[in-house]
Write a structure and sequence with these properties.
Elements: H1 2-26, H2 35-61, H3 73-95, H4 99-110, H5 114-126, H6 129-137, H7 141-156, H8 165-173, H9 176-193, H10 202-224, H11 234-258, H12 268-276, H13 287-292, H14 296-308, H15 310-324
Helix pairs in contact: 1-5, 1-10, 2-6, 2-9, 2-10, 3-4, 3-11, 4-7, 4-11, 4-14, 5-6, 5-10, 5-12, 6-12, 7-8, 11-12, 11-14, 12-15
């Protein structure tokens, strides 16, 4: 119960703080006009390039005996995103949505908040060893985002921006996120395999850094939050909720169980899969709709709706994980 309360407190307080900063800026109480975007981007970059890689490195260093099955985690991430995307397209077809709405539904169904809320729930429920598994799960996230989500979104949209295959490939080759993830995972794994003992306190430090990074992400999200036309997309939002919290978890948890992830490290990998497969729409799902002329209000509604659904989903996840113990 304590972990549950801490989870909701961190999420709600961070979002409210960010939204409060946004409103204060709109009233002219804070930074000059235009600086809000710069502040938000710097917060996200610091969390992404410094905090989360450092936390993942400490966690991977402290894993007692990394199993070969952990190499499946990036594959499970891809399967989860593809499952969500296909389910979203099926929902859009069932509801008879327009192309612009179909593109937004696809983005929301396929992109999941793993690094922020997923990492927070994992570390509060399962401890700091889960942080390394979160990093492994999302290791191919940038490849999927620029290689699949952006081209598919552009195909549904009317905007002129975007990237073709060659520009997407160039971005991936030079992408700093991928480089930082690979570097820190390699460093943590290398220290682990070399048998170098991890200093005392690094586990607590890894957890603290992850929680701090999540708070920075959520404050930045609150600073960009736009609430408009929310009541117009009830059917679409319910469809996304079904995709995110029913279809994807059913597929991923079943596959993880069949692969034997519940039989290593006291079932930790399977429990991490339970959490990461049932997380809300990612914030970056709102970028392609704005870039490619899709329905931005629909994407915004689905993000808010799935995030609010955590009030019900997180306690259910706790019950599921207790049954797996």
């Amino acid at each position: 119960m304590q972990s549950l309360l801490i989870t909701f407190t961190v999420i709600l307080s961070s979002l409210c703080a960010g939204y409060g900063l946004q409103r204060a800026h709109a009233c002219g109480c804070l930074w000059p006009a235009g600086d809000l975007l710069l502040v938000r981007q710097r917060m996200q970059r610091f969390a992404l390039f410094v905090c989360m890689p450092t936390s993942a490195m400490f966690s991977l260093w402290g894993l007692p005996s990394p199993s070969a099955l952990y190499t499946l985690f990036p594959l499970f991430g891809i399967v989860g995103w593809l499952t969500g995307g296909l389910a979203g397209l099926a929902v859009a077809r069932f509801l008879g949505l327009s192309r612009s709405q179909t593109g937004s539904v696809f983005c929301c169904a396929t992109l999941t908040n793993i690094a922020g809320i997923g990492g927070l729930v994992c570390v509060l429920f399962l401890g700091e060893q889960s942080i390394a598994l979160v990093a492994l799960y999302r290791m191919c996230e940038e490849f999927y985002y620029f290689g699949i989500v952006c081209p598919v979104s552009r195909a549904f949209g009317t905007g002129q921006g975007g990237m073709n295959f060659s520009s997407a490939l160039r971005h991936l080759v030079h992408d700093k996120v991928i480089g930082m993830i690979l570097l820190t995972l390699s460093l943590g794994l290398g220290l682990n395999l070399a048998g170098i003992p991890r200093p005392a306190g690094c586990g607590f430090l890894a957890s603290g850094i992850m929680i701090f990074a999540t708070m920075m992400f959520l404050v930045a999200i609150g600073m960009s939050l736009r609430i408009s036309h929310l009541g117009l997309y009830t059917r679409q939002c319910l469809g996304i909720i079904c995709c995110k919290f029913l279809v994807v978890p059913a597929v991923i948890i079943s596959l993880a169980w069949l692969c034997g992830l519940g039989h290593i490290d006291n079932g930790l990998p399977l429990k991490v899969m339970c959490i990461l497969s049932a997380m809300p729409v990612a914030m970056n799902a709102l970028v392609p709709p704005a870039l490619f002329g899709l329905d931005v209000d629909l994407a915004n509604t689905c993000w808010l709706g799935t995030t609010a659904a955590l009030v019900v989903v997180v306690p259910l996840l706790l019950l599921v994980m207790n049954s797996l113990s």
